[in-house]
Amino acid sequence: MDQLVIFDTTLRDGEQSPGCSMNLKEKIEIARCLERMKVDIIEAGFAISSPGDFESVKTIAETVKDCSVASLARASKLDIDTAWDAVKSAAAPRIHLFLATSPVHMQYKLKMTPEQVLETTFAMTAHAKKYCSDVEFSAEDATRSDWDFLVKIVDAAIRAGATTVNIPDTVGYTTPSEMRDLITYLREKVPDSDKAVFSVHCHNDLGMATANSLAGVLGGARQIECTVNGLGERAGNTALEEVVMAMRTRPGIYPYTTRIDATQIARTSRTVYNIIGQTAPLNKPIVGRNAFAHESGIHQHGVLANKETYEIMTPEALGIHTNNIVLGKHSGKHAVEERLKALGYNLTREELLSCFAEFKDLCDKKKNITDADLEAIAEHRIRADEDVEETGYRLNWFSLHTSNFTTATCTVSLEKDGEKFEDVRLGDGPIDAAFNAIDSIVKPVEHTFDIYNIHSVSQGKDTLGDVTVKLIADGRSYTGKGLSTDVMEASIIAYITAVNKLCAATAKKEE
Ligand code: KIV
Ligand code: ZN
């Protein structure tokens, strides 16, 4: 069976989509998940796009050992030089340069003639090759390009030293049969096509990204570019979990292997959703909460008789462990530790103690603690920034008055370095009032809200509210998380955490 290359672009194309910006710590955490899941290549960012991106590509290149690390670059010397600077310390660096080849992009965006695009493809690929043996060239908007022009472009890229040529469906326009035919055509017509790996990079505007990528593979592509949870520009990119599981589930049709450890899929998906402050749509293939839920009587009956009646893959294959153990206030540290391990969390002693303390607090408010509750506790602990927590403001108490006939009022008491601060503010609703009161104490620099999101961790009235607040200031994002059965408390904690991070960054800049 052929082995396919899985190129993950969650940290580049995924991060490019609105509401998905991540800070360095979050990107490193995702890179670690990707390495554990054994993707072949991590596209860590677009080094020239900002100093923050450069820093994160470089740090990921220095951190990751078991995957190649790539940076995107436009087909220009400065972009390529910067990309190389960022990835050169990687165990296996890759430069990924791109240039658009469709008539509409060449005429209106690049303002270049096809001849200039052809020359630039050759010259810039050769320039990248001077630094790095592993060079990928992408013909942006390939699926709306003239096929014979693409033959010339791919030929030029290969002659200049590209080891991978990527055929992106940049605007999610192609169809499976067209994608298969295009890859087959290019592989037949390009003279030295066997000297490079053909790659597909599909967007999901018409909901066909997974089908188009797999069709490209049937046409001879041997690299799939994808993202965790299908994050990405507009409707997203091909979802990694979908292509991998399609190949595992239908090996007769897709006789290809990947290096991916599928038991890491659920955990990685959860981490990515947690970091961007979103949750999977319930019916999302592979990773949605309902992907393995059987509600109707007929289905339940069938699954009880034999799982294969309605299940084409098992939750265990994705690292989802269903269990009947109910944890509650009589459960000890060992039981909690074991359950967390089964859920894929190998925590340090300190993390475990802190999770156990939170677990015990929660037991006072809630009778049965579910796996989802435990996961939420662990995710919060892992993501906590101890330095900022220790030196920043902490919530003492809050008091809120709200009704549907008065203006909401919130009094907040915060503590920092042993000193107590109190203020009261009005607002357009309780959240606004609470955040105004915090602002009046902390006085953070000007910022905007990228995300304010409440998600219920499990079902039932006593569910934990998991709140994410993401602030943007000076082009950087600051995320705070709060977890409580009281959504106001969770919101206030999330906001204080985000504001503490913002203040710590401001103070660092002023030093
Ligand atoms: O969608 C696209 O064309 C891209 C390229 C930069 C590979 O993301
Ligand atoms: Zn893309």
Number of β-strand runs: 16
Distance between the termini: 57 Å
Per the CATH scheme, the topology name of the largest domain is TIM Barrel
**CATH architectural arrangement of the largest domain:** Alpha-Beta Barrel
CATH class identity of the largest domain: Alpha Beta
Strand order of the largest sheet: 2-3-4-5-6-7-8-9
The CATH superfamily of the largest domain turns out to be Aldolase class I
Shape: globular
Q: Provide the list of bound ligands, each named once.
A: 3-methyl-2-oxobutanoic acid, zinc ion
Poorly predicted runs of 5 or more residues? none
Q: How would you describe this protein?
A:
The chain has 4 domains: 5-275, Alpha-Beta Barrel (TIM Barrel), CATH 3.20.20; 289-318, no CATH class; 333-382, no CATH class; 386-510, Alpha-isopropylmalate synthase LeuA, regulatory domain (Double Stranded RNA Binding Domain). The radius of gyration is 25 Å and the shape is globular. Helix content is 43%, strand content 20%. The strands form 4 sheets. It has an 8-stranded parallel beta barrel with strand order 2-3-4-5-6-7-8-9, surrounded by 7 helices. It has helices spanning 10-14, 24-37, 51-63, 77-87, 103-110, 114-131, 147-159, 176-189, 209-218, 240-249, 265-276, 297-305, 333-342, 349-365, 371-383, 386-391, 430-442, 487-510, and strands at 2-3, 5-8, 41-45, 68-74, 93-100, 135-140, 164-169, 197-202, 223-226, 256-257, 394-401, 408-416, 419-427, 448-456, 465-473, 476-484. It has 18 helices and 16 strands. With 511 residues, it is α/β, with parallel strands linked by helices. 3-methyl-2-oxobutanoic acid binds at residues 13, 72, 98, 138, 140, 166, 168, 170, 201, 203. Zinc ion binds next to loops.
